[in-house]
Structure formats: C-alpha cells, structure tokens
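User: Here's a chain of 208 residues. Predict its fold as tokens.
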Amino acid sequence: MKFDNRKKPSLKIIKLDSQTNKPLSGATFKVQETENATISEYVTDANGEILIPDLEESIYSVWESAAPDGYVCNPEHKDIQLTWGTTKQLIFTDTEKPKLEIKKVDEATGIPLANAKFRVTATESKTTSEYVTDSTGTILIPNLNEEIYSVDEIVAPKPMACSLETLSLETVRFSRFCSFVSCPPLGFLCGITEFLCSFSIPMNPVSV
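Assistant: Prediction complete.
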C-alpha cells in the first residue's frame, strides 16, 4: 500500500500601487474555485498580501471587489491553475484616484497667499464645493472622480483683487496642479483665461 502525502497548494495575492509599486493594504478580493460555486473573501494585510493555504489542485478565479481608500478598483479577473506542493502568486495593481492642487500666489512677488476662496464644480455630476487656501497658499483636494472640473476664485485675499481666471480641468488618472495669481487692486487688471486640459499622463505644474 502506498501513501502519497503531497502538500496542498497555496495561493498568494499581492496588491500594489500601479505607479510606485507600494504595497496596498485594505484591498478586498474574492476567490472562487471554478468547479465550485463557493466564493471566499479576503483582505490584503499591511504588506499588501493575502496568503491562502491548503487549497485544492484546481483552477481558481480571483478578482478585486473593493479597492483601498483613495484608489480606483481594478475590474480585472485572473484565473490560475494550482498544483500540489506549490505556492502560486497573482499580482494586481490599483491606480490612485486623481488629486487637484490649487496654488494662489502674488503676481508680483510670487509669495503664496492664504485665505483665497475657490469654487470647484464637477461639470458632469453637477456638484460644487468651496475651499480656502491655507498658510502656504495651497488647496489639496484628494479622491476625485474621473471627470471634468471647473475652478473659479470667488474671494481674493485682502488687499488683492480677485483673479478672473476660470480653469476647466479634465481629471483622468493622475494628479493636476494649477496656479492662480492675484494683482494689486489698483492700476492692474488680471487677464481672463479659460481652457480645457487633459492629464491622462503626469503633467508638470502650470501657471495661468
């Protein structure tokens, strides 16, 4: 009589940031053996990993059901054949949601200006929010959806004149930086500009 004590296969799932390859915790995955209707759910640990031991020698389907906070869920499904005595691994990547950084500066000196109020409108979902620049003249808006945004300055920091610029920004996958300048209130008129820009690839800071 012969006994075959083969070790059952294991599956490792790895979740990484698509740009930095940083491990991502908190990603939820579903795993299903193709010959079985049962679906199991797992969440990546601090190392961005899930290790599932003692599986059957079979084909498994794996997909992400919920992305970590601040990331877009990857809809990709992957199938993998597990064999006795082995640990197979699957790597998935997520892309960080777009961010919008608004910078307010003095036109003459380039000094950052606090307390400028901006209106940011998502043109597709019709939602509007207002933000105020901090002590560095900056507003950082994370976790945006992939749509077009209109940015208007509505209150200038005293004693500056309000910028008349309107920016229309199309957020796709990466972060966007835009800069507004304020003119002194007397003797100057800020230019009126309006443009549409797409940033499906990383872009450098732009002043308008």
